[in-house]
Design brief:
Length: 156
């Protein structure tokens, strides 16, 4: 699939590559075209843009689901087959549990509810009754008097 755009093959191939989570650069590489050509195709052929979006939505959904499962924890069934010298087999089924992952929880919350969970909380300072903070310059005499008053409070 090189060079010339083929409306019968390229959209399906592009969607399949995007579903695998490939970037546009990697998709172009796998199609043996330049990144610039892929960008031009996106502009010229609606089917190319749609194929990329469709594939990326599916890939992103799969990753989101995996992250959610890691954040919440999950159970799975593990099967172990033991073969005996006589050719018979025994299959053991074990239910296993994966505990919630703290890092996945933090990542999920910071991205889904950033106003509540971001690392830096925004603080706002307001003046009287929520109005603006009043700022005025003090004279040297007022500044000295305020410093002396503060020192008296500190010393007791």
């Amino acid at each position: 699939m090189t060079g010339k755009y083929d409306e019968r093959r390229h959209p399906d191939a592009i969607a399949a590559l995007a579903r695998r989570g490939l970037t546009d650069d990697k998709i172009a590489h796998d199609l043996r075209i330049s990144r610039k050509t892929l960008s031009e195709w996106k502009k010229r052929y609606v089917a190319v843009g749609d194929a990329l979006k469709e594939g990326k939505v599916i890939a992103d959904g799969q990753v989101e689901g995996a992250l959610y499962r890691r954040a919440c924890g999950y159970t799975y069934t593990e099967k172990k087959t033991t073969e005996f010298p006589d050719g018979s087999q025994r299959i053991e089924t074990t239910r296993k549990e994966v505990a919630p992952d703290t890092t996945a929880i933090i990542f999920w919350l910071k991205n889904r509810a950033p106003d509540v969970w971001r690392d830096v909380q925004r603080q706002e300072i307001t003046g009287t009754e929520g109005g603006p903070v009043q700022v005025r310059m003090m004279t040297d005499e007022e500044l000295v008097a305020a410093a002396e008053k503060t020192m008296k409070k500190v010393k007791g």
